[in-house]
Amino acid sequence: MEVKQLSSIYYEEMKQVFVDVFSAEPWNDKWVDDAQVDRYLKDLTDYGNTLSFVLVDESDTVVGGALGYVSNWWEGREYYIKEFFIKVSEQEKGLGSVFLKELSEHLKRSDIEYVTLMTDYSVPAFSFYKKNGFKESTDTVFMVRRITE
Questions:
Q1: Which residues form the N-acetyltransferase domain (predicted)?
Q2: Distance separating alpha carbons of residues 122 and 90, to the nearest angstrom
Q3: Which residues contact 75 (CB under 8 A, 6 or more apart)?
Q4: Residue of 92, 41, 93 lying closest to 68 (CA atoms)
């Protein structure tokens, strides 16, 4: 397995893995409009501060992705993971942990000091991230307000 920075040669394959993963349990997203998928993924991969990676196997096939962006803060540079995923058929094999470890090495070489993300308590990802050294922040809260009501 190898971590590579996302490039156009991996985009379509990464997109299909993304849709397959998040259309399955426990997320059950309804990604039926290909143009909407592209708009969402391009929001995460096509701007100046975006930084996205793929995990590829020995045959250079995409097995997973980490889509996010870098921001600068008074404490240093931070990589915010917006989407992290492993191909459904490859889950529960330790590849997510391998991916996070290798990803951290890439980020260290880029002088990035923190990795942040959000996830739901009710999905297996919560335990996965805790197992891989992420801690819940007691200083911040995620808030949302619907403006179309």
A1: 1-149
A2: 21
A3: 113, 114
A4: 41
Q: What share of the chain is helix, strand, coil (3-state, %, to 5)?
A: 35, 25, 35
Alpha helix locations (H) across the chain?
A: 8-23, 34-45, 95-109, 124-131
How many CB atoms lie under 10 A from the CB of residue 23?
A: 14
Residues of the chain with pLDDT under 50: none
Query: In the block, which residue shows the tokens 């997320």?
Result: 27
Q: Are 22 and 29 in contact (CB under 8 A)?
A: yes
pLDDT digits (tens, 9 = 90+) for 110-145: 999 999 999 888 888 999 999 999 998 888 888 888
For the chain, domains (ranges, CATH) are 2-131 (3.40.630.30)
Q: How far apart are CA 52 and CA 69, in angstroms?
A: 7
With beta carbons less than 8 A apart as the criterion, state whether 86 and 21 touch: yes
